[in-house]
Amino acid sequence: MPIKLPKDAEHQFNYNSIQQDKLTAGLMLVPALFLLFVFLCIPLVVSVGVSLTDERLISPNSARFVGLENYKKLLGLQIIEVNRFNRESGSEADEFVYKDKRYSKLRNLVRNNAELLGYSELSRFTVWDKSWVIVARDVLFIRSFLNTCKFVLMVVPIQVLLALALALALRRNFIGSGIIKLLFFTPVVTSMVVVCVVWSLMLHQQEGLINQVIASLWPLYDAIDWLNDPAWSLFAIAAMSAWQGVGVQMLILLAGLQAIPNSLYEAASLDGASRWSQFLHITLPGLRHTLIFVVLSTTIFAFALFVQVDVLTQGGPQDSTSTVLFYAIEKGFRQQQIAYGSTVCILYFVVILTLSLIQKKLLGYEK
């Protein structure tokens, strides 16, 4: 006959058991937390400290504290009004307006205003018949950040939509479906350097497979120099990156599809719902949680673009493929400006942290 404990004793036993489990879990977390502290927290604190100095990797001079000067240089932007006027000769010319003063040339404006020293033209735009010029202290960093954003906007939709299409096509097992999944996942576990070398051969202007295939389908096609044309180089890297990483998103979406009960599709079919209607009202709502995770995780990985640029274009042509991480490594190690490179990394960390918090917020809301 089992011994029945009093309620107070049973409650005390359960409490002690829970406390013991918590202690065991805490002890098991200690090694992981220690490694995170050593390899994440300490380097982050050191990077923040270094970013507040002018330290160089190899320099005979000792580092000086400069405060937020590196951050001001990175984020320094000004918008200046540009007026068009007709000269006596009849030709048009620009006139730059800053603090109610007018200058015939942008460099004269910069030289005569101490707060604008070191600024260079980034771009021009027109709004409601008014022209403006954007000047920046570090034009290359701003271009690198914009290139990174362009890459994200290109690769995320391509990769997510392709992964969704593959997941839907491979949802039901059929002869050869396992081989197809393996083929699409193989590039994920292949070294990115190897992938880049193979794609550099495929993207060659004269002998590349891609141009030859397009030329065979379209005889009037003028071969594109994919990696040396500023208009196409970033897109070529985005297409390669989407192809290389689509296997991971495909498997995640496949897992999400398998969590949707088949009874919902059977009931919809009995009610006469079309395949498209089932996709809109069953598949997409059922994948909402998974799609949010896939989109945001792909975005975070896309912001980490470096290897493809370093192997294929080295930031060119004309800085059209320079990215935030490539710029940080270029400044921090190759140009030995370790403090400035650390500043770029801190700003990159802030962007990734913001995206991670958004992901946590959205997934928590869905739950």
UniProtKB/TrEMBL annotation:
Residues 145-359 form the ABC transmembrane type-1 domain. One of its GO terms (cellular component) is plasma membrane. The keyword Transmembrane applies. Pfam families: BPD_transp_1. The chain crosses the membrane at residues 27-52, 151-170, 182-202, 231-255, 290-309, 338-358. It is found in: Cell membrane. It is a multi-pass membrane protein. Its main location: membrane. Keywords: Cell membrane, Membrane, Transmembrane, Transmembrane helix, Transport. Belongs to the binding-protein-dependent transport system permease family. This is Binding-protein-dependent transport system inner membrane protein.
